[in-house]
Amino acid sequence: AGHTRFEARVGVDDSTRNTRDKARFAVYGDGKLLAQTPPMGLGEAPRLLAADIRGVRLVEIVARSEAGASDLPLVVAWGDAALRR
Fold first, then answer.
1. What distance in Å separates the CA atoms of residue 43 and residue 70, rounded to the nearest whole number?
2. Fewest Cβ atoms nearer than 10 Å: which of 12, 41, 64, 82?
3. Using CA atoms, how far apart are residues 78 and 85, in angstroms rounded to an integer?
4. What is the CA radius of gyration of the chain?
5. What's the CA gap between 65 and 39, in Å, rounded?
């Protein structure tokens, strides 16, 4: 209780064999979209994803593949994920 912010560095992991698809990272609070990234692909620098979570009871973090051009799984990373006060 008392957390006001969620933060993480997100991106497509260098270990992925899926070089074609992109992922969009999102943070939801109580079912409502709070923050999201543009589509990110292999080789892009990690981005800071942050959301104001004041008053939120349930925080969900979601990564979705954007295109589905490849049948290989897209490996993503949520680095330094933390709830802040």
1. 17
2. 82
3. 19
4. 14
5. 9
Tokens describing residue 16: 């992925």
Strands (E) located in 1-85: 5-12, 23-29, 32-36, 47-52, 59-65, 76-84
Residue with tokens 């006060």: 85
For residue 77, give the amino acid letter. Answer: A
Six token digits for residue 21: 């698809």
At residue 63, the pLDDT reads 97
Rounded CA-CA distance 73/51 in Å is 27
pLDDT for 23-70, tens place per residue? Answer: 999 999 999 999 999 999 999 999 999 999 999 999 999 999 987 889
Residue-level pLDDT at 68: 82
Q: Which two tokens stand for residue 15?
A: 């270990």
39 backbone φψ class: left, alpha, beta (φ>0; ψ -120 to 50): beta
